[in-house]
Amino acid sequence: MNLIRRTSNPLxxxxxxxxxxxxxxxxxxxxxxxxxxxxxxxxxxxxELALAAPGKTRKDFNVELDDHVLTVxxxxxxxxxxxxxQYTRREFRYDNFQRSFRLPDTIDTAGINAKYDNxxxxxxxxxxxxxxxxxxxxxxxx
Length: 142
Fold this sequence. Notes:
The protein is mostly beta strands. The chain has one helix at 15-20, and strands spanning 38-42, 46-52, 61-66, 69-83, 88-102, 113-117, 120-126.
């Protein structure tokens, strides 16, 4: 029996996945690109992007704006090495991603700000004053 043989059916994981978990070079997940999930919400005064990227620091991110295109990218490297008299174990991981968003003209690009907290990168995109809808008002009948 060949233990490294992969099956196309995810209901039947290989013995290597069961033993080592899915974070191994033999895992089916290694063929997929990592792209964090993004939630976009809108209020009357702003848009907000919330990008899920746990395990990173704010220094891992690069947020750029060019011609109303907001680009969020990240690149990180991790190395871990253990030496004993009998063996040397060395593991390393490299991941990166890039997501781009075309912003509407209603965004006040000078007021954009970002923060990273508890694994969530939040980018606040305020709207121009002209784009904020006027509050509903009652017209008096005379």
